[in-house]
Design brief:
This protein is α/β, with parallel strands linked by helices. The protein has helices at 18-33, 75-84, 96-108, 120-128, 133-144, 155-163, 190-194, 215-225, 255-264, 279-286, 299-302, 316-327, 331-345, 348-362; strands at residues 3-8, 37-45, 49-50, 54-58, 88-91, 112-115, 149-152, 169-171, 201-206, 229-234, 246-249, 267-269, 291-294, 308-311. The chain has 2 domains: 3-175 and 347-362, Rossmann fold (3-Layer(aba) Sandwich), CATH 3.40.50.2000; 183-345, Rossmann fold (3-Layer(aba) Sandwich), CATH 3.40.50.2000. The chain is built from 14 helices and 14 strands. β1, α1 and β2 (37-45) form a beta-alpha-beta unit. α2 (75-84) crosses α3 (96-108), α4 (120-128) packs antiparallel against α5 and α8 packs across α12 (316-327).
């Protein structure tokens, strides 16, 4: 019998980030490489719709969330999963759909897998204050102890769950589309549109302009770096008042447009210290860019000294120094090294092959392997 895998998540919207990238890569890879595996995806939308792989249930929109919807009641989601009769269920978030995955798996007698993409405690604590940390940690522990396996994108995330005594943790990194993100995808007109010459260092950051991305650190660093360096900020909720050497595209930019911007830039800069993986860093590395990040969060697990530099967190002067150091030490070679690291460790084919081994172990298609938290190289 073919293996049937079902994913469930609320994190599926037009401007979604890493979760949707992961799910789309999985669906595409399975269709191309494992036609013996049936795939289903259950997500919220305006109504109930069912196609070959995509299934939706109605859920109200989440205000100010770029199109996300938030399921309120568990029963319909449990019933929908049970009706699909998968051999394995994977949940992508810790809310109603996460609990639905556990309950449906119990009813079907199949393994339940969770992918812990975001640090819920830190994410909410940064917005409402850390008075809620104890309760949030208890919530995370209660939910994720119910799963047969918990996938995490980085060593940092695995260690966080280990401290909460969550068992069965395995590092499962995200990957990158090595054909889409490539040095040859350069947008030859980008510098002309920005009004800067070829002798100017063009830095880029792409993502939401949210608090945890630490955009003010980048802006202060740009003041210190001066006109020889120019920064392009790409994404929604970016600041409107910026130094003269900063350019802003204040809206979501599709990946097929972003790849050209990356390949036409000289380096990626990322001052955020709370990344749980850093997919945008990996995409920049695949595009042949050196990366300047901070020595905090999971970005420090991606950026090695031969492909970029790490500065102290929340320190604009140190960040500016790290930028200067990259351009004083053959940034083109660092970019090539980053591309090579993406190719050897983070291509979707290798990542998905590793993921399928987890599935086949849990469904007894192959011999059981002991789950572990280990570095991915």
């Amino acid at each position: 019998m073919p293996l049937h895998v079902a994913d469930i998540t609320m994190f599926h919207a037009p401007a979604s980030g890493g979760v949707r990238t992961y799910l789309e890569a999985k669906a595409g890879w399975l269709a191309a490489s494992r036609p013996d595996v049936r795939y289903s995806l259950l997500v919220p939308d305006t109504g109930a719709v069912r196609t070959d792989a995509m299934h939706t249930l109605p859920a109200p929109p989440l205000p100010f969330s770029n199109g996300y919807r938030f399921p309120l009641r568990r029963k319909a989601w449990v019933d929908a999963l049970v009706a699909l009769k998968p051999d394995l269920i994977e949940a992508q978030d810790p809310y109603v759909t996460g609990w639905a995955a556990v309950e449906a798996a119990d009813r079907l007698g199949v393994p339940a897998v969770a992918y812990y993409h975001s640090d819920l405690t830190r994410l909410i604590g940064s917005r409402v204050g850390h008075w809620a940390d104890r309760g949030l940690n208890a919530y995370v522990a209660k939910l994720y102890r119910r799963f047969d396996r918990v996938l995490v994108p980085s060593r940092m995330m695995g260690e966080k769950l280990e401290r909460l005594r969550v068992p069965n943790i395995v590092i499962q990194p995200l990957g990158v589309d090595l054909q889409r993100f490539h040095p040859m995808r350069r947008d030859a007109q980008l510098r002309q549109r920005l009004g800067i010459g070829d002798d100017t260092r063009l830095l880029i950051f792409a993502g939401r302009g949210s608090h945890e991305k630490k955009i003010p650190v980048l802006l202060q660093a740009m003041k210190l770096l001066g006109a020889q360096y120019q920064l392009l900020l790409v994404g929604s909720h970016m600041p409107k008042r910026v130094p003269g050497n900063v350019h802003v595209i204040d809206h979501f930019v599709p990946k097929d447009e972003l790849v050209g911007m990356f390949a036409a830039s000289d380096a990626l800069v990322h001052a955020g210290d709370r990344e749980t993986f850093g997919l945008i860093v990996l995409e920049a590395m695949a595009s042949g860019l050196p990366v300047i990040g901070v020595d905090a969060g999971a970005v420090s697990e991606l950026v090695t000294p031969d492909c970029g530099r790490l500065a102290r967190a929340d320190n604009a002067a140190a960040f500016a120094d790290a930028v200067r150091e990259v351009f004083a030490n053959d940034p083109q070679a660092m970019g090539r090294n980053g591309r090579r690291r993406a190719e050897t460790t983070y291509g979707w084919n290798g990542v998905m092959t590793q993921l399928m081994r987890q599935y086949e172990t849990l469904t007894h298609r192959i011999a059981e392997e002991a789950p572990h938290v280990a570095a991915t190289g």
